[in-house]
Amino acid sequence: MKYPSLAQTQVALRSGEATCASIVEHYLAQIEATRHLNIYVEVFTEEARQRARDLDEKFAQNPNSVGKLFGAVISIKDVICYAGHEVTAGSKMLKGFRSVFSATVVERLLAEDAIIIGRVNCDEFAMGSTNESSCYGPTRNAADPSKVPGGSSGGSAVAVQAGTCILSLGSDTGGSVRLPAAFCGVVGFKPSYGRISRHGLLAYASSFDQIGILANDVADVATLLEVVAGPDGFDATCSHEPVRSDTFLKTATAGKAKIAYFDTALHHPGMDEGVKNLTLDFIEKLRAAGHIVEPVGFDYLDYIIPAYYVLTTAEASSNLSRYDGIRFGHRTAGAKDIHEVYKKSRTEGFGTEVKRRIMLGTFVLSAGYYDAYYAKAQQVRRLIRDRTEEILQKFNFILMPASPVPAWDIGEMADDPVAMYLADIFTVQANMAGIPAIALPIGQHPCGLPVGVQFMAGKFREAELLAFSAGLAKI
Ligand code: GLN
User: Fold this and answer.
1) Residue with more model confidence, 64 or 420
2) DSSP string, 341-378
3) pTM of the prediction?
4) Catalytic residue status for 318
5) Ligand 1 pocket test: which of 78, 122, 127 has the largest number of ligand atoms within 8 Å of its C-beta?
6) Least trusted range by pLDDT, from 32-41, 325-334, 382-391
7) CA of 468: how far to CAs of 367, 416, 430, 436, in Å?
8) How far apart are alpha carbons 424 and 435 in whole angstroms?
């Protein structure tokens, strides 16, 4: 890797050791060298080169005129709109669709002089944990190309892991930034619900979705978050809670943290031995560094996944109704009447996992079943959120494994979607409660693959979470 962090990239740019043009060439060469991993669905080659030349020119004219993300080469998940560029959510349904506007995050990246190098692969409509449901085929894990990278932001995680960009934007509805980060040995951060505008993010489950950040370095996450966070007139759920104007890392309190973990999680029957041992060793390191780490009770772990899949499929069935071949999306050829247009267009355009979820979501919302499934799951969500908030009033953070298992083989879970859903057991809580969470690499599993750990913090306590995470590099 040329420069391991944005901060180091910017030092090189300012000293004249590098130019934006040379950095872009480096990443383009790396993208070519890693084609077999199937990371990018589109590379903005000439556009990135042109932008690099323009930024070098701007810097030469006045070094103080460049933005906070000067020289940051960033990839974006194929669910984030960029005006004039295709966006397809990894689906045949949207092949050929071009955004007519840019997502708020994209506008903010560009305004601070970032360079967007391409669009990366993901599970179809961000539904999945492996990247296998993409119509472009799976992205492969750079640590072992026979393994999945995790999902749904698998392309974003491998883009950073394989050194093809310095940062990547993904989306996280139930763990889609943190699970692939853990599987690929990079940092994955999901902010509080409402911290980053969702304007221009193709919706999966709107009350859970957040744009998240993948990076090598926690400080880079903080830099990027500061740029993209904050209120937005285009997203009414976007919070007015102040975003610190100086960096998240500097404003946060240092010192020793009080951390809770759940015995029910670490000793869960689905927990792999190697992941468990690494997590227990990590807890010991935290204690040795002076942090207080204590077990607390949490009775809802086994309710998280069922409630999540009822609520998110319900929201998805509604959100995806716009892809009907008339308003948006693929339109079938030669239908005889309007019903056939809808039916055939959706049958042809959507893949198996998306269809499964639309049907499940339609079922849980249907008259006669609504109370038994959807309303009940809402109540479970409230219980989970309340208990989580209660714990986070007494503790700074909750520690969780990021995943119960390391990355598995491509194809291994193809016939067993429920087994795949269970891999989200530790990441979904943060989306249920709307709180920030980060996955950090903690070591190598005996099988050679990366393992991550996760920390959650109270709502809008990103500063504390990022400062603590940055400090962990030293333990
Ligand atoms: N794996 C989870 C799902 O399929 C999470 C997806 C996501 O966060 N976008 O729903």
Assistant:
1) 64
2) HHHHHHHHHS-HHHHHHHHHHHHHHSTTTTIIIIIHHH
3) 0.97
4) no
5) 127
6) 325-334
7) 47, 38, 18, 13
8) 16
Which stretches of 274-396 are assigned E, i.e. beta strand?
A: 292-296
What is the dotted CATH code of the domain comprising 6-250? 3.90.1300.10
Has 176 been annotated as catalytic?
yes
Ligand 1 atom at minimum distance from 127 CA: 4
Alpha-carbon distance of 308 to 129, in angstroms, equals 14
Q: Classify 229 as helix, strand or coil.
A: strand
The answer to whether 86 touches 35, Cβ cutoff 8 Å, is no
Distance 90 CA to ligand 1 centre (A): 14
Instruction: Determine contact, residues 350/361, Cβ cutoff 8 Å.
Output: no
| Tens digit of each residue's pLDDT (9 = 90 or more) over 345-391 | 999 999 999 999 999 999 999 999 999 999 999 999 999 999 999 99
Q: Which residues contact 149 (CB under 8 A, 6 or more apart)?
A: 130, 131, 138, 139, 140, 141, 142, 155, 157, 158, 161, 180, 183, 184, 407
Please tell me which residue in 91, 171, 176, 197 is annotated as part of the active site: 176
Question: Domain locations in the chain?
Answer: 6-250, 305-371
Six-digit token string for 26: 């480096």
- Tokens read off for 296: 């607390």
DSSP state letters, 432-463: HHT--EEEEEEEE-TTS-EEEEEEEESTT-HH
CB 167 within 8 A of CB 118: no
Tokens at 142, concatenated: 């750079």
At 200, give phi and psi (nearest 5°): 90, 10
**What separation in angstroms does the CA of 283 have from each of 197, 287, 303?**
34, 6, 25
Residue length, the chain? 475
**Residue 94, both tokens:** 């949207």
Residue 39: both structure tokens together: 């990371």
The span from the CA of 218 to the CA of 470, in Å, is 5
Which of these, 213, 201, 106, lies nearest to 153 by C-alpha position? 213
pLDDT at 307: 97
Pairing assessment for the beta strands 115-120 and 40-43 based on DSSP bridges: antiparallel
